[in-house]
Amino acid sequence: MAATFPLITTHHLGKNFGDKLAVNDVSFEVKGGEIFGFLGPNGAGKTTTIKMIVGLLRPSSGSIQVGGYDVQIQAQLAKAITGYVPDTPNLYPKLTGRELLRFIGDLYGIEKGPVERRIEELLRLFDLTEAGNDTIDSYSHGMKQKTALAAALVHDPRVLVLDEPTVGLDPKSARLIKDILRQMAERGAAVFLSTHIMEIAERMCDRIGIIHQGQLIAVGTFNELRSAGSGDSSLEDIFLNLTGGAEDAEIAEVLK
Ligand SMILES: Nc1ncnc2c1ncn2[C@@H]1O[C@H](COP(=O)(O)OP(=O)(O)O)[C@@H](O)[C@H]1O
Ligand SMILES: [Mg+2]
Questions:
Q1: Nearest to 247 by CA among 59, 40, 88
Q2: Is residue 2 scored above 90 in pLDDT?
């Protein structure tokens, strides 16, 4: 059964780069069992927030707990239960997929027997059993994305964070990733993903937070966001309403 306590909590999280306030007073919770979508246009502050959650960027203000651990103070404990798929994964091109997953298993100190079973299970799940013996530089974009997600799952994280996971994916791989994220959530994990595509947020996520110019301007289920709007039926309308139509050029382009 899905857990209902928060596995990711941010308190008044902020990050500035010089004068630029990239993330401004962002507070939210993601519970176990839930897929949370962080939706916003390019430059809204999604990647900056994600890098703070996974411990790669130090917040300028506020704090983050992952699985109850403070990401700044108990960094190792937080990282041990977190899986992260960056927007442009860096995947050691000269390793085979299998070698990469073994390497990750070693990093997390997982025993050889269990890690081998886990790796074969993941390769099968992602339809990479054969390709697992080829070097990663021979993989297609979709195969690389799947390998990056498999690598993030080797240590069976309770918190999974993905930065724009479906960009450039063929429909079959996108569907597979969606199904796997749902399975993770059903097993009690908290899944946090960012996207600039409303349709993805609407289809994949249980709750959605809309980030605009560094600020979280709305959080809720799709239906909650819809009823908060003025009878709007689509998330696109809600988004445009909330952001006053600003910065929608790119969103509009994506939706064409
Ligand atoms: N290392 C950095 N130095 C300066 N400005 C940055 C840096 N990283 C991001 N920014 C700025 O912070 C804002 C948010 O960026 P980002 O979090 O990457 O947005 P998103 O992922 O939503 O597209 C943007 O204006 C971006 O230019
Ligand atoms: Mg980004």
A1: 40
A2: no
Please give all residues whose beta carbon lies within 6 A of any atom in ligand 1, as ranges: 17, 20, 22, 40, 42-48
| Dist. CA 23 → ligand 1 center (Å) | 9
User: Among the CATH numbers 3.40.50.2020, 2.130.10.120, 3.40.50.300, 3.90.220.20, which is that of 8-81+158-255?
Assistant: 3.40.50.300
Q: How far apart are CA 214 and CA 40, in angstroms?
A: 9
What is the best residue among 17, 251, 254 to mutate for testing ligand 1's pocket, by most ligand atoms within 8 Å of CB? 17
User: Considering every ligand atom, which ligand is closest to the CA of 250?
Assistant: 1
pLDDT, tens digit, 9 for 90 and up, residues 218-231 = 999 988 887 776 55
Atom of ligand 1 nearest to the CA of 163: 21
Q: What is the pLDDT of residues 145-182, one digit of tens each?
A: 999 999 999 999 999 999 999 888 888 888 999 999 99
Query: Hey, whose CA ends up nearest to atom 8 of ligand 1?
Result: 48
Ligand 1 atom with the shortest distance to the CA of 18:
4
Domain layout of the chain by residue ranges: 8-81+158-255, 91-156
CB of 135 closer than 8 Å to CB of 94: yes
Residue 236: closest CA among 228, 246, 248: 248
Q: How many A from CA of 119 to the centre of ligand 2?
A: 29
